[in-house]
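Quick illustration, no need to memorize.
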Amino acid sequence: MEKAKLAIIGGTGFEDLLKSARQTRLRTPYGTVTSLFIRKMHDRNVLLLSRHGPDHSIPPHKVNYRANIYALHKMGVERILATNAVGAINQDFKPGDIVVPHDFADFTKFRPTTFYDNAPVTHIDVSKAYCPEIRKLLIENARKHNLNVWEEAVLVCTEGPRFETPAEIEIFRRVGCDVVGMTSFPEVVLARELQMCYASICYVSNMAAGLQQRLIASEVASISKHILPKVKEVLIESVKSLPYKRGDNCTCASTLQNARFE
């Protein structure tokens, strides 16, 4: 089994990144992961994880997040670059914009959200849930590609698969959320629990409920088709420019230090 220190988790529309990749599967305590691929990028082994499956058959509330993140950890991954489609709550944000969130709010309902259900009791710090080093790199590379980038945002994650109601979006707006999606959580927390760096480059696929007349999946797909080629370029460039070793500003590798009652 080949090891890789970098991984990209792709969502809707990233299937063509897998074309020159070799598929593998891995059994974990949380289930078998079959949508794993490995390929070379700039002389680096990079694991590609198709969040919804290569044929986009897994809805967001049914993704086996624990199995996915554990599989990446088992294969040696230290840093994860993720992509997420989001709706804009902040009315300054527009479809086609790029958002690199710095914080999240969890409004999911039924998802397993931790690897630490048993002793030792573990409380991780998520003051900087998204890795600052990877965030900085994604922002810089997105700007190099002349994308409109929002470098700070609070992402609220909902259960799905339905879109949110206007009333829900208004609640999220009042408490300070900027964008809404269905997949960033619990990925970000699970990665941090295993001391992996995680950051996400999000693209705004639509205005959230109540901010446009209606929400339809085909509109999301249309915006995604337009913006995704540029997002892929940003990801590939970020793989190339990411240092081999994690820097001093990254605390992700020491998340479990003083986090346990033992």
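The first strand starts at residue 6 and ends at 10.
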